[in-house]
Amino acid sequence: MTGIVYKSTGSWYTVKSETGDFMECRIKGKFRMKGIKSTNPIAVGDVVDYEIDENSDSVTGTIHNIHDRKNYIVRKSVNLSHQMHIIASNIDRVFLLVTVNNPPTTFNFIDRFLVTAEAYGIETVLVFNKIDTLDDATLDEQLYMQHVYQEIGYQCLRVSSTEMKGIEALKALMINKVSMFSGHSGVGKSTLVNALEPALHLKTKNISEASKQGQHTTTFAEMYDLSFGAKIIDTPGIKGFGIVDMEKEEIGGYFPEFFKLQDQCKFNNCLHKEEPHCAIKAALEKDEIAWSRYNSYLKILEGDDENYRTDVYNEDRIASDKTRD
Fold first, then answer.
1. pLDDT at site 127
2. What are phi and psi of 219, to 5 degrees?
3. pLDDT given for residue 86 in this prediction
4. What is the spatial distance between Cα 75 and Cα 96, in angstroms, rounded to a whole number?
5. For 236-269, what is each residue's pLDDT tens digit?
6. pLDDT given at position 208
């Protein structure tokens, strides 16, 4: 049988068959993807072949093959710095949820995410969420952030789940697509999915007033079929975004505004730091490139990874797996 992975807990995978039936599956023996050093060989969105496990007391399946992926998006593994964690695969469009101060989303975090999405060929739309909570100062900050990314060419939406602002525009971009929601914990991913599809009743929590951080309501990545002809992958909140598998010389190519100019640099291998006659630095001095973007580029180039999140979900995974053994 062939199906799509709708949920992954690390040991068990919920697979939806071509006929619409769901089955809990495990991996058969050691399962390694060729050329990919990943902590999770199978991800939500994967198309897999599986069969019923005749040796199990309950009706479960065994996955024995994974189809080639159209694309996937990764971040650095929490515990193994030289390996990656595949967040999801076979994505048509990813929506990165951004909040100005509730919790704060930094330019550096956004840029790391965008660079990774560019590297893996996935279109990203920035969703500025919770616009109903902005005062004059934070509204100016939000509009400035939006201006920076719109100037580069990224599509931006302004959304309020509680007041249903921007919801129809978001739906229009999701129809007939497999979309993924990502962002920090607390930016309102699950609340936004509930606004799109109230019948799902996904769990939500309020922001911690002490830390201004989210409370981690989504434990595992999971795909949902929505009534208006869309699929959404809701993902756990991520604290930081460690970049993997990139050579220094290629990083600038994943900044679209750098890519447009880099052939005008004097040196083909220009890293846009100390080299003379650098088109990127010239554009920076003329305010044609945002300083926030250049600072993010330097941090990525220097390997200055933000603290990517600790694995707060490991105990949940163990408990979840025990209930199915």
1. 97
2. -90, -35
3. 85
4. 14
5. 776 656 666 688 899 999 999 999 999 999 999 9
6. 40
pLDDT of residue 246: 81
Question: For the chain, which residues score pLDDT lower than 70?
Answer: 29-39, 76-83, 203-219, 238-245, 304-325
Whether the predicted model's global pTM rises above the 0.70 cut = yes
Residue 2, both tokens: 């062939």
Q: Which tokens hold the place of 188?
A: 């309102």
For residue 285, what pLDDT is reported? 94
- What is the C-alpha to C-alpha distance for residues 243 and 310, in angstroms, rounded to an integer? 16
CA dist., res. 174 & res. 32, Å (int): 32
User: What b-and-e string marks burial along 203-221, b requiring 16 or more CB atoms within 10 Å of the CB?
Assistant: ebeebeeeeeebebbbbbb
Distance in angstroms (rounded) separating the CA atoms of residues 255 and 139: 26
Residue in this structure with the two tokens 């750098």, named with its chain if needed: 258
